[in-house]
Amino acid sequence: MDLSDLLNTATQKSVVDNLSSQLGISSQQTGQAIEVALPVLLGALGRNAQTPQGAQSLDKALESKHDGSLLGNLSAMLGNNSSDLLNDGNGILGHIFGNKKDTVEQGVAQKTGLNTAQIGKLLALLAPIVMAYLGKQKRQKNVSAGGLGDLLGGLLGGSSASSASGTGGIMDTFGGFLDKDGDGDFIDDLAGMFGKK
Fold it and tell me: pLDDT tens per residue, the chain (197 residues)?
């Protein structure tokens, strides 16, 4: 399981087409923006899951509201009821990014060439989808709160072997790359990372 599993689902084309329509951009632009936005979302979730409190909070959300059922009706939700998804997504973004949400949006916008309003909407629509996918994976693999870091690391291309050091795969594959100043908060490094690309 890796990030491509999330991108290459049976509903991908429908999801991309729906997002493209809502953002007013081409499917190609949307696909490229998703490829930038997904690792940022997964990276933030993975960072949160590195603390026991954060892992428990994420686990609780995946056990209840974000249980994966959204994926069965995703096209309809995106097409007819996207305001609910947006509200849910903005709540998720506020939780995982906190006061760095604007910084993240600006960074992703610079990387993709889209404006921050488009990126804000894209991230908000993607967040519940990512959470639903995680909820589905959690149940299929019977993952506990303590295993969420490795689950997220796997989505980002980490391996279980990398967790032998005592950290989740996500820390080896993504967190360290983003947290360039080593302060434990990769989000504050996003603007600099995107600005240099």
Answer: 445 555 555 556 777 888 898 899 998 899 889 888 888 898 889 888 888 999 999 999 998 888 888 877 777 777 766 888 899 999 999 989 988 899 889 888 988 999 999 999 999 999 998 998 899 889 889 999 889 988 888 877 653 333 333 333 333 333 443 444 445 555 555 544 444 43
Residue 116 belongs to domain spanning: 3-195
Number of domains observed in the structure of the chain: 1
pTM, entire model? 0.78
Tell me, letter by letter, the H, E, C secondary structure of 147-171. HHHHHHHHHCCCCHHHHHHCCCHHH
